[in-house]
Each structure stands twice: as C-alpha cells, then as structure tokens.
Write a structure and sequence with these properties.
heterodimer; A: mainly beta; seven-stranded mixed sheet; four-stranded antiparallel sheet; B: four-stranded antiparallel sheet
C-alpha cells in the first residue's frame, strides 16, 4: 500500500492565489521530508528539506518566502506556494525517508497550473 | 556538491532484449547511496534498485541489476528480458549519507526507455 499520501493531485488556479499542498507519511513518523519540483520533460530538483519542529532548509535559488514549508507534526508537511504566478506551474512531489534512513518514498505528486 | 550525469536521453529496444542505461556521478563523499528510479507516464516515482557505496557486491532485483564501479564513479542499470511495462523515464539518483540526518536526492536528467513490441 501507499507509504506517502500527497494532496491534491491537481490544482488549477488564477495568478496571485496561494496554493497549499499536503504530504502525509502513512506508515511511520517522519522527522524529515523533502520537496521536489519537476518541470515538463525535466528531472526532479530538490527544493527544500522539511524538518519536524524546526525551519525548513532551502536549496540555493529557492525563495523561502515564496515556498512556505510547515512540518508541524511527524506525519504531515505542507508546501504553500504564495502569490502563485504562471512560472510556478510545475509538478511538485514530496518524499519521506524510510525508517532506516533510505530510500525515499515518494508521494504521487501535485500538478500545479497557474492561469 | 555532487552531480549525476545520464548521457542517454532516449533508448529504444525490442521486447525481451537486454538494455543497459548508463549513469556517472561526481562526488567527494565517501559514504553515499545510489538509486535508480522509474517514472512512468503517471509520474509516480518507483524505486527500481539501490546500492550502498560501501558494498562491493552489485545489487540485483529480479530482472534489474547494476554495475557499480566506485573508482570510476559509474552506476549503470541493466534490464534483462525487457517488458512493455518497462517503458518509462529512468532516473539515476545520488544521496549523501550522514549521521544524524539525511540529504535529499540529486537526480540525473533521465533516460526515456521505450520497449518496442
């Protein structure tokens, strides 16, 4: 069965709105989750590391004020794309580390389209 | 920082043939993991196989096996008896190992594998 649940799977919204994406670890508690972005026909790029109870760690070039990450519990991390614009349209996917520390289990992803 | 290179953007083989996907990486780390992930059109990320860098023995999972050459920083994936369901994007990925935590994955650009009937 699924280890990670990601919701919603698809979002279409107008420019300027904020969008929240949830990532839930179903099988175990996860102190660390990761958020990736994948543009069409490209690879996955790590955006940030979500740490339970502390601030997220962002990769170089990722705006932390634009992509807000909250990891308030051991089973839930959220990514909020604030004031989204068409260039934010992408496939966002989260992952959770296995109990042993690897490998990473991925959610099914969220396709975000900003009109 | 580490980099992962997949030099084959697309490959096509006949069903039942064997195919090898190449991957090279660059890192100064001594402890790390390597993975191959499959991404079908549904875009779900599926773990195919993993290799711990400290293990000399090549990992195998049924029809999938790797050729891990640590000195050459090479990590190729061999798919035997290829099946139509193997058609997908395949990503090679690197993860640094560190005590007390973990890092995200660094992915290659991917290889689009097409299995022809």
């Amino acid at each position: 069965g699924a280890v990670v649940s990601q919701h919603p799977s698809r979002v279409i919204c107008k420019s300027g709105t904020s969008v929240k994406i949830e990532c839930r670890s179903l099988d175990f508690q996860a102190t660390t989750m990761f958020w990736y972005r994948q543009f069409p026909k490209q690879s996955l790029m790590l955006m940030a590391t979500s740490n339970e109870g502390s601030k997220a760690t962002y990769e170089q070039g990722v705006e932390k004020d634009k992509f807000l990450i909250n990891h308030a519990s051991l089973t839930l991390s959220t990514l909020t794309v604030t004031s989204a614009h068409p260039e934010d349209s992408s496939f966002y996917i989260c992952s959770v580390l296995d109990r042993g520390g690897q490998p990473q289990h991925f959610g099914d992803g969220t396709r975000l389209s900003i009109l | 920082a580490q980099t992962v290179t997949q030099s084959q953007p697309e490959m096509s083989v006949q069903e039942a043939e064997t195919v090898t996907l190449s991957c090279t990486y660059d890192t100064s780390e001594s402890n790390y993991y390597l993975f191959w992930y499959k991404q079908p059109p549904s875009r779900q990320m599926i773990l195919v196989i993993r290799q711990e860098a400290y293990k000399q023995q090549n990992a195998t999972e049924n029809r999938f096996s790797v050729n891990f050459q640590k000195a050459a920083k090479s990590f190729s994936l061999k798919i035997s008896d290829s099946q139509l369901g193997d058609t997908a994007m395949y990503f090679c990925a690197f993860m640094k190992q560190r005590g007390g935590g973990a890092d995200g994955l660094t992915f290659g650009k991917g290889t689009h594998l097409i299995i022809q009937p």
